Amino acid sequence: MITVTPIRTGSVRVKTAQQAGRDGRSGIGRKIDIFRDPDWSEPLPIFCFLVEHPEGRFLIDTGDTWRNSVPGYLPRWNPFFTKEVVVKVAPHEEVGAQLLAMNLDPSRDIAAVILTHMHHDHAGGLDHFPHTRIMVTRENYEFSRGLRGKIGGCLPQRWPIWFRPELVTLGGPAIGPFVSSHPITSDGRVALVPTPGHVNGHVSVLIRQEELSIFIAADATYAESILRAGKADGVTFDPETAKDTLRRITEYASSTPTIILPSHDPDGPARLAACRTFI
């Protein structure tokens, strides 16, 4: 038996053009659209996900941190941080406090932390896991350390000084339309699959059970409704790759009963509780 528990680590408001970009717009054009967009989303959840498998507990992403509210934590030179996104996290909403409230010790009871990518709202809770195995794709780790990563939402200067993740390359077999994979559990029921586009090296976590799959999409899409519309987000520098990823997710979820769980979809937990699949 595998269980999945969403953990909400605060909220974020973004421009609607960030959630779904206009068709035909380039990566740069989509950034211009975000800055021009007068419309903001409602506060969206920042989810990470606890996966409990017979081999252990796996945390998918770490959410964000209350330190976003501290002056100087976010770089002032980057107008995306200062003008185009509003993150609000209370100290007790951080993932470490929430795991403790579930009677789980972050330093002892998590087999591994799996980062789908290293944007600040997915890697902001790393401080809670100094003794835990942490996995991220090599491609995303290297991208996140560079200038494009810093411009696009990564904060490598805020990573813990002890942070030395296990760098993963997806060299495992194809799963449906996904051309490669990386098993997390020995039975292969929990696996990483490539979902690039939102950012280089982005992965999602596919959990295959007897009767249905659970697809932790992270930021491959902001919501199931946006996935259905086939709309790539405004963050991507590569809209065609992002759209191809959406096509592959849709193909998989149309052939196998699948619950879609993006990281910022308010309806995700209700779909999970009701076992409401994509088809």
TrEMBL record:
Coiled-coil positions: none
Annotated family: Belongs to the metallo-beta-lactamase superfamily.
Domain Metallo-beta-lactamase as annotated: residue spans: 45-264
InterPro entries registered for this protein in UniProt: MBL_superfamily_lactonases (IPR051013), Metallo-B-lactamas (IPR001279), RibonucZ/Hydroxyglut_hydro (IPR036866)
Cofactor(s), by name: Zn(2+)
Protein name per its UniProtKB record: N-acyl homoserine lactonase family protein
Keywords: Hydrolase, Metal-binding, Zinc
Gene Ontology MF, one: hydrolase activity
